[in-house]
Design brief:
Length: about 260
């Protein structure tokens, strides 16, 4: 379990999005307001962002709690970006992978995070893992459920799926193999953001100055925050947000996207 956040829009400092808000991701590491599973997110954290003119993201990840990392607040105060993905972690199972298990995971221009847990891990996903190339399994950053979920998503991205399709096809597949899993996924390529609400909370905020924040929970009490219904795919590019119902594992077809009204 964890709390995560993504932003795409006009250039902002990391601090304005993560540290300064009264209930921001920094505070959610010890006092989340809407977390349904777990209470403290102190098992690591990470931030990935894109510098102007560079398609490959930078990452800053640590194994400990974000509040104990004194250099991070200084870094967040000065680093500016148009797109970021960040997470604070509450480990499903204790492990020895340290910061390698902390989101965001990365490959090429993509950043990824998983808020939730796969039931029956690892046995439940053994069949899906068999469908991945051996090199992908040998290259996993960590020995946890999130790293394998990322490998499944990444295989679809490398096959040519866009962000939304990669998530929309992966989530029902995992849900069929591991019923009861919580699969709130968050993905960006530096230009747009895709996310799923599947078993946990997800919200988005169209910012007055432009851009969109997608987060596990609101970082302030702005009335413009919208809650995303469960079993929904969100895609965002700038201020354009679309919500699409996700297929249940037994469904044969997905519903068509619907443009969410702006307020």
């Amino acid at each position: 379990m964890c709390r995560h956040l993504a932003y795409t829009g006009p250039e902002e400092t990391l601090g304005r999005l993560l540290v300064e808000p009264p209930f921001g991701l920094y505070r959610q590491s010890w006092a989340p307001r809407r977390q349904r599973y777990g209470t403290v997110n102190a098992d690591g954290f990470g931030v990935g962002w894109y510098a102007q003119g560079d398609p490959l993201p930078a990452r800053y990840r640590r194994a400990g709690p974000i509040w104990a990392d004194l250099p991070f607040a200084d870094l967040a105060r000065v680093v500016r970006t148009r797109t970021l993905l960040a997470a604070v972690r509450d480990a499903t199972l204790a492990g020895a992978d340290a910061e390698a298990a902390a989101a965001p995971f990365a490959a090429g221009s993509w950043l990824f995070s998983h808020n939730g847990a796969v039931t029956g891990w690892p046995q439940s996903l053994a069949g899906l893992a068999d469908g991945l190339p051996p090199v992908d399994l040998l290259s996993l950053e960590a020995r946890n459920d999130s790293a394998l979920v990322w490998a499944l998503v990444l295989a679809r991205l490398r096959a040519g799926d866009d962000l939304g399709r990669a998530l929309a096809d992966t989530v029902p597949e995992i849900a069929a193999a591991a019923p009861g899993s919580r699969l709130n996924l968050l993905l960006t390529d530096g230009a747009s953001v895709a996310a799923t609400a599947w078993g946990d909370t997800l919200w988005y905020l169209p910012r007055p100055g432009g851009g969109t924040v997608v987060a596990s929970e609101p970082y302030d009490d702005d009335p413009r925050w919208h809650e995303v219904p469960d079993r929904t795919l969100l895609t965002a590019s700038g201020t354009d947000v679309q919500l699409t119902p996700l297929k249940e594992p037994s469904d044969a077809s997905a519903a068509s996207p619907s443009k969410e009204p702006r307020t």
